[in-house]
Amino acid sequence: MDRTKTIAALTAVMIAALALGACSAGTRAIHVGSKNFTEQVVLGEIIAQHIENRLHVKVERSLNLGGTLLAHQALLNGQIDLYPEYTGTALAAVLKDPVNTDTAAVRAHVRSEYARRFQVDWLDPLGIDNGFAMVVRSAVKARTLSDAAKQAPAAGWNLGVGYEFEQRADGLAALKKTYGLRFASIKTMDLGLLYKALEDGQVTMIAANATDGLLSKMDLKILADDQHAFPPYEVGIEVRQTALRETPGLREALTELSGKFSNAKMQQLNFQVDGRHESVNQVAQQFLEQAGLR
């Protein structure tokens, strides 16, 4: 190639690079949020890295924001553009609608109401259904919550719960209403302390979540919700419609994550962080690589 052609080729490359840089500079940053427990932070980081990989835009992280209502308000205020949420939580805690145990009906209702009330789109499920899980030691004879109501210790169960479970209509209230369980005590504590309290005998039952990492590592069992006290808790990404309009390709990138998870996979990811103390950043990278999304 002669000097003239070389200069022309280099000029073309520089122009293309400048155009790409201008395009990237002109694209708004995407603000990804999450609530304040391990699963949410892991999912938030996975989502953030995936957007960066696919769209090459700046991603601001507001992970570990707080509880449901804080995260929801941040979304409505435009402080964040999206975060992962649970259909049952949206139904009961945000929309304050009656508990419904029909998975498809709850998903459709939440999707419709979020679009109508909040101008927020609820994307297709990730593949996780992280419902409340009433957990006991494996030695307990009861297999279902109905069994637990009949076989309660003389003084009643010593129950350990998180703050949201205690307060929400689809949590402790639904459990009591459906099964009439007797409790000697109800201790409210940080979610991270529940399993230790059960292991140490401070409580005899805990209100955990179906994707907790320790469920596959400790000598425990989930009591089946045989009378369907709790609604489904499918995880979906909820996104402000403004962000979807202003960021080309965002919907398509996020949709790639739909169906890429399972409860077993989420238990593993949670345990990598909580049990093995691996960094959230590294766990997210590994997941995206294994899912073929890097």
What does this structure look like?
The protein has 294 residues and is an alpha/beta fold. It has 2 domains: 183 residues, Periplasmic binding protein-like II (D-Maltodextrin-Binding Protein, domain 2, 3-Layer(aba) Sandwich), CATH 3.40.190; 92 residues, D-Maltodextrin-Binding Protein, domain 2 (3-Layer(aba) Sandwich). It is 46% helix and 16% strand. It contains 13 helices and 10 strands. The strands form 3 sheets. Strands 7-6-8-5-9 form a 5-stranded mixed sheet. A 3-stranded antiparallel sheet has the order 3-10-4. Helix 2 links the parallel strand 1 and strand 2. Helix 2 crosses helix 13 and helix 4 crosses helix 5. It is globular, with a radius of gyration of 23 Å.
How would you classify the quaternary structure? single chain
Percent range for β-strand residues:
15-25%
The CATH architecture assignment of the largest domain turns out to be 3-Layer(aba) Sandwich
Number of strands: 10
Keyphrases for this structure?
16% strand, 13 helices, globular, D-Maltodextrin-Binding Protein, domain 2, 294 residues, three-stranded antiparallel sheet, alpha/beta
Set out the fold topology:
Blueprint: H1 3-26, E1 30-33, H2 38-55, E2 59-62, H3 68-77, E3 82-86, H4 87-94, H5 103-118, E4 120-122, E5 132-137, H6 145-150, E6 157-161, H7 163-167, H8 172-179, E7 183-188, H9 194-199, E8 205-209, E9 220-223, E10 235-240, H10 241-246, H11 250-255, H12 263-274, H13 280-290
Parallel strand pairs: 1-2, 6-7, 6-8
Antiparallel strand pairs: 3-10, 4-10, 5-8, 5-9
